[in-house]
Amino acid sequence: MNIRIIISVLFFTAILPADGLLCAQSAPTDSLFVKPGDLSNLIFQLKTIIEKNYFDKEKAASLNKILTEKFANGDFKNLSPEHTTEKITQLLRKETNDIHFKVTHFSTKAANNQQQNQAADNGGIAEIRKLKNNIGYLKWTEFRAGPDAFKKTVQALERLKGSRALIIDISNNAGGNGEAGGFMNDHLYQSKDYQQLLVKKCNGETRWHQSEVPYNNTEGPRFYKTPVYIITSKNTFSAAEYFAFIAQETGRAVILGDTTAGAGNPGQGVAFMRGGSDIGFFIFVPTCQIQTKAGKSIEAIGVIPDILLTSGDWLEETINIIGSTSAKGPGTKQSTP
């Protein structure tokens, strides 16, 4: 079987694609239906990747049995690429209760989109500004890590230095590299105890170990005593969820908005294409579990906000909530995990 493996990328939530949780987006194709050869290859590759990489081997065996039966019964036959990948994605999520499972497709004939993402250019930070009453606002849309991204993060924090309170908006953040959360946290927490909150166990491992990436950098301003307010929504995924989760569990920030997606298990993304085909597939399979030392997980649950935002303007609503608090306000207490 002539298969071209396009990419194989590890994404780790909080400490993560991931992921840009799911960087491979569905693209239009010229075929109305997935061709039999492409469908057969998709199921074969999916079963192979699940068997090899999914952290729960018992569920992996069960999934592969179900996929084999449904393929044999023609459940995925004569479907569009969009319908095929969505149907498989929903099946995997239903059987495992794991939101991070994802199957998408792409086409070699699709337009080559090389447009630069503004958030990517700014280390994943889309907007920084000072609001009324000296409230700092940071809109964070992607968790990007590395020297260039961290430099942009420090520059953003410099602009917010001296703020009375800090709003970090991750309501449209699909996650990404969890090291970004660790780097940001180093500027928010005076104590490093928060790094011990989460533990992780990955495929093939028998013991839980520390999940949070430790940082002890000296660059950038510190906000140890600044009240922090984090805005979340159902569009907050993966590593971004753990950023909010740590802040909530330690009492460092007030979480506002709506419950997050509940995509807590980090994983691995693989893209592949059958030789001679014009359609390829991207599969994201969870490879690890993350929870608190007490066993609390956000998988399929999400982070439930301390304050539910209900207006049409969440930012203005958050500003009003901050204004109704005392001068010190909430979000400065840092409890020990």
TrEMBL record:
Gene3D superfamilies given in the database record: 2-enoyl-CoA Hydratase, Chain A, domain 1, 3.30.750.44
Signal peptide: 1-20
This protein's UniProt keywords: Signal
A Pfam entry, by short name: Peptidase_S41
GO molecular function, one term: serine-type peptidase activity
SUPFAM superfamilies found in the cross-reference section: ClpP/crotonase
Domain Tail specific protease residues, every copy: 96-310
Record carries keyword Signal: yes
InterPro entries per UniProt: ClpP/crotonase-like_dom_sf, Tail-specific_protease
GO BP field: proteolysis
Entry protein name: N-terminal domain of Peptidase_S41
Natural source organism: Niabella drilacis (strain DSM 25811 / CCM 8410 / CCUG 62505 / LMG 26954 / E90)
